[in-house]
Amino acid sequence: MKECEIFSNLRVPCGSKIVIRADGRNFSKLSNDLKLERPYDPHFANLMVNVCNDFFMEFSPQFIFTFSDEINILLSEVPFNGRVEKLDSVFASFMSGSFTKNLIKYFKDYPTSEQNIKPISFDSRVLPLSGQGIVEYFKNRQNEAWRNCLNGYSYWKLRKEFSKSHTVEILNKKNSSDLHEILFERGVNMSEIPLWQRRGIGIYKKEVSINGYNPIKNEKVVSKRLKIYTDWELPMLNKEFFNQIQ
């Protein structure tokens, strides 16, 4: 039956930069089950960061960008000989397992017995991109993080006053300026919202100084090491940023 595995030899294009995008499946229901703080829950954000760090430790990508239930991964090397089926299945299952493992840490009241635990899954897709395409892609995802932030604050601020249907009616066809005005009238200045909510969170390797001691020369020494770094105050993602983290 090997001949029926018609997609098993599908591989990513040679020479392309590869991005993996993963999304949580049915996480709107999960967020209700977890009783997440709206529009942003720091416990959930930390959980997603831990998933990203687990992935970084296992596969050593160049950069990971996460917001909401979305994870975007820029690979530094392409494993599994670039087989698309393998990339999608292994990465999605790894993130699902990591999320489940970390769920207990950040949400101790979530039902985790064998009888009550609800399976959690991510979907995954492979995107082959050019060098410039990488910059444009991550700029696009960061813009989406900002739109989610603005829309989320607008929706949940109005939900304190109106029903779900009335809130949707109020927000219908509102542009960005209208949403800013709605929030400003209710005491929310979007420029004061934490950067991780507006721009997403980045995970990459950063050079740090390590203090040490040279017993031969009997002196203190400082060496440089690359360490996995979680950036909760990401700058705008552009060509200069990606040049710095290469």
SSE arrangement:
Layout: E1 17-24, H1 27-33, H2 42-59, E2 63-67, E3 70-74, H3 84-106, E4 122-129, H4 131-159, H5 164-171, H6 176-185, H7 195-199, E5 201-214, E6 219-231, H8 239-244
Antiparallel strand pairs: 1-3, 1-4, 2-3, 2-5, 5-6
Helix pairs in contact: 2-3, 4-5, 4-6
Category by helix and strand content? alpha+beta
Q: What string gives the helices and strands in order?
A: EHHEEHEHHHHEEH
CA radius of gyration is 21 Å
Report the major sheet. Answer: 6 strands, antiparallel
Q: What share of the residues does DSSP label as strand, in percent?
A: 15-25%
GO biological process, one term: tRNA modification
GO molecular function, one term: magnesium ion binding
Keywords: Nucleotidyltransferase, Transferase
Protein name: Guanylyltransferase
Name the features.
246 residues; alpha+beta; Alpha-Beta Plaits; 6-stranded antiparallel sheet; 43% helix; 22% strand; globular
Could you please describe the fold and organization of this structure?
The longest helix has 29 residues, at 131-159. The radius of gyration is 21 Å and the shape is globular. The model has no long low-confidence stretch (mean pLDDT 92). By secondary structure, the chain is α+β, with helices and mostly antiparallel strands. Strand 5 (201-214) and strand 6 form a beta hairpin. The protein contains eight helices and six strands. The chain has a six-stranded antiparallel sheet with strand order 4-1-3-2-5-6, sandwiched between helices.
